[in-house]
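User: Last request for today: this protein with flavin-adenine dinucleotide, please.
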Amino acid sequence: MVPAEKESGLHRIVVVGGGAAGLQLVTQLGDKLGRKGKAHVTLVDRARTHIWKPLLHEVAAGSLDIGHHAVDYLHHAHQHHFRYRIGQMIGLDRATRTVQLAASHDAEGREVTPERTVPYDTLVMAVGSTTNDFGTPGVAEHAIALDTQAQAVRFHQRLVNAMLRAHTQTGPVRPGQLHVTVIGAGATGTELAAELHRTLRHVVGTGLDRIDPDKDLKITLVEAADRILPAVPHRLSAEVMALLTKIGVEVRVRARVTEVRADGVALADGAFIPSELVVWAAGVKAPPFLHDIGGLETTRTNQLVVTPTLQTTRDPDIFAIGDCAYLVEAGSDTPVPPRAQAAHQQATYLVKQIPAKMAGRPLTPFRYRDFGSLVSLGEYSTVGSLMGFIQGKNMFIAGLFARLMYRSLYKMHERALHGTVKTALDAAARALTRRTEPRVKLH
Ligand SMILES: Cc1cc2nc3c(=O)[nH]c(=O)nc-3n(C[C@H](O)[C@H](O)[C@H](O)COP(=O)(O)OP(=O)(O)OC[C@H]3O[C@@H](n4cnc5c(N)ncnc54)[C@H](O)[C@@H]3O)c2cc1C
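Assistant: Here's the final one, the structure of the complex with flavin-adenine dinucleotide:
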């Protein structure tokens, strides 16, 4: 194993995970501390590029080109005065204050970076979450999750291939051959179902005229609870349900999946949904490697339990933010939800608190502010409920205003990474390329 990197005596801040929370944090700490030589800021991520995770359902459906939105970690690190180390974290040694990274390999299996350790004085865990299949048989083999860029791209390619196969085969399209079943009607599953409904029709419209969109294409959304979007207010859920039904997405609630097979999905009531493609979006858990890592306190779903200052309960030098952190605030009986707005708020909070900790000042507690829920049904509609807007009451919104609010969360993330000018230029560049490129990715 290669020994730990030599350092200059400056405080070493290591952030593991360059997602919604981690990349914002290292960017702003790099600009604040790294640029002035006040600390070494290092990002560790197993990937080479960052894509904001809530965009993944659009990548899967083909309505968003990953190349226009991906942030290259090496380049970004160079611009924002932090260092980027590629590698998958596999262990933590609290006695030597080191993070252990696995070796990384190229597509041919040749080693790119060796197994190594990265030393820290302050460590921030921001490794996000992965899909929780609750041990349901067949999910690992036959369903696709939307946890990573690679999974979203793979799903899209399988989708286009299924359409090309159906168009060129000699016989008619078989029942189930062009059916997609999305399991889990939280925000991810619901948004994906609506986006797929539109993009599948668009792909057929490009000349695959042996496919009949009304007869051959089908999207089914399956939910175990008694309504879709169980975590949002009833009115919002009912509104989205009505929209999905109107456009022709089949929605099955109170439907518990017992098995995913190569040819479809089996339900507890004995029904079987024939499907060429199955997406599993029914719940998340923190990555399994976190379980009891370094003797830290973790939950049954592997989240790191943190105090109100986001420090892990057994080690104040280790923080956890984003989906992998478990925080129940005083006066609340539910944990802060695994959402991009929580990740953003926690990163913003630590940008101020880490310098305070380095200076030996006491930390102030983190307060999560829930701004509400917004659900984008692609070009069909965007609806949402904003929390406490008028005299403390929730406000229901729909249409253009809701769409702008939905996009504003991503714009906030982009602004935190690139600043206002570059974000505006990027938006203008994308608006221009949208005029010259197909609206749906066809390969
Ligand atoms: C399709 C989809 C739609 C969503 N839509 C919304 C929405 O509309 N609104 C909302 O609020 N939230 C939404 N979410 C949830 C939101 O994306 C997450 O809450 C948010 O991304 C969490 O941020 P994070 O920084 O904790 O994790 P992530 O953004 O997932 O980042 C984790 C990072 O850690 C890295 N990593 C993981 N394991 C390791 C390891 N062992 N070693 C090194 N690096 C590692 C990953 O490569 C990744 O870069 C959506 C999620 C999905 C999948």
